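URGENT: need a sanity check before tomorrow's submission.

F., can you look over the diguanylate cyclase record below? I want to be sure the sequence and structure line up before it goes out.
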Amino acid sequence: MSTVLFHHDLGVVQGFLRFSRAVALLICAVALVVLAGWWCKRPLLTTMWPGQTAMTANAAVGFVLSGSSLLLSQHSSPRRSSFGRWLSLAVLAIGAVTLVEYLWMTDLGIDHMFGGPRTHGSGRWPGRMGEPVAAGLVLLGGLGLLLPVRRWLYLREGLAMGLLAIAMSGLASYSIALAGRNDMLFGRMPIHTALLLLLATLGWLSATPTLGLTRLATADTLGGVLARRLLLPALLLPAVFAFVFQLLQSRLGLPETLAFVLMALFSGGAVAGLVWWAANLFDKLERQRRESILLRNDAGTDILTGLANRRALDEVLACLLRSQREHDRMFSLLMLDLDCFKTFNDDFGHLAGDQVLRVTGHLLRAALRPADMAARYGGEEFVLLLPETDVAGGREVAARVLDAFRGFAWPYRAVTVSIGVAQSAFGDGAEDLIRRVDAALYDAKHAGRDQAVAAVALPTVAPSKT
Ligand SMILES: Nc1nc2c(ncn2[C@@H]2O[C@H](COP(=O)(O)OP(=O)(O)OP(=O)(O)O)[C@@H](O)[C@H]2O)c(=O)[nH]1
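Structure tokens as predicted:
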């Protein structure tokens, strides 16, 4: 399991909370308009659009209560948020009583709110909302009741998924009707009811932007960006597909088989399009990441040999000297110089010389422990920094490097190296150490090259206790 916590984009989190409040207000407003329609006997207000199915009065009451509960849930006062939960309980009760009516084939009186539904209701029971809407209200009430209970987070997410399925089925069946077909799957779910169910679900999910499913959508990661951009289109796709599918048959008169084939093409194309878009985003971010790694590495790397460059060397050397001063931790420094490299260049050309420098990089890296550092000091000179290593250890590494050079199958002629070894001493500055190791290297060259010479050890000076 990952130990890195979700990191949320604060602006996005606030945006989700604002969306949740806006949804709550919109739900209340639409449902109140519908109730006014029933109260004043204005059918157009209950259908919102001429010729459409009306939202029942009890469903509208459920939405007003759920919207108010959603608004109160974000209130800091515990009394108001607990009142909000009572409202959610009432929403659940409205849905549950309707379902009981369906199960027992009875009338418990809930279908005749505002008197209007007797007049305008359609279907088997005038004024009674359809089963999917009743189930939706039960789930909506459950969402509100479970909001503050962290333990039941997964159950709440499950209820939200159920609600989304009901709302999306309602929208898809409405799309089919819109495209000219009369036998709707949820013939009794009005379009504004389906839309309010969808919005209410999203509103409740957005009320806890850093928890459960929504926490991915507010994360400031690539996953967060994908979720924010793709989830809503994905939720609306079924309705769009259902509409196009039906339109192809009823309005354009295409045979069913051809319409199926075209639908398969549409859905495949849409999925491929979404995958392509996501892949593009991944690709762009990955390239940016690699570029930034490259830039970070480039700043401290010698391009020809792949070893650390002078700048990185100076930083690490300063660090080791500080550690020597403050914690009395010694280290060794080796200075290497390729022998007679000028004549090698003269004889075989600079490109062959560059190849030797590259191989030198490989040999030095191979000779060191992970904690050691190899750097190109300049031209054909190299420096090795060996933390926690005394001069004897430095000589051992030097011997290993000399052997590696002697044992390598050089393409033009054998290449050897001379090495100066020095151990840091308390009070050393970078120049003191380099001067000592340079002198040792000079001695190695004058002693006949292809060998290592250690600098004369300095008398140990005890670190001051102050
Ligand atoms: N090919 C190549 N040659 C380089 C590079 N940097 C420095 N050199 C060459 O390295 C040579 C160094 O020569 P010198 O300093 O005279 O020393 P040397 O010939 O190695 O003689 P000793 O050090 O006394 O053994 C010069 O000819 C430089 O041109 C490089 O990046 N590529």
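My own read: Residues 222 and 281 are 8 Å apart (CA to CA). Residues 304, 337-342, 345, 350, 353-354, 357, 379-380, 445, 449 surround guanosine-5'-triphosphate (CB under 6 Å). If you see anything odd, call me.
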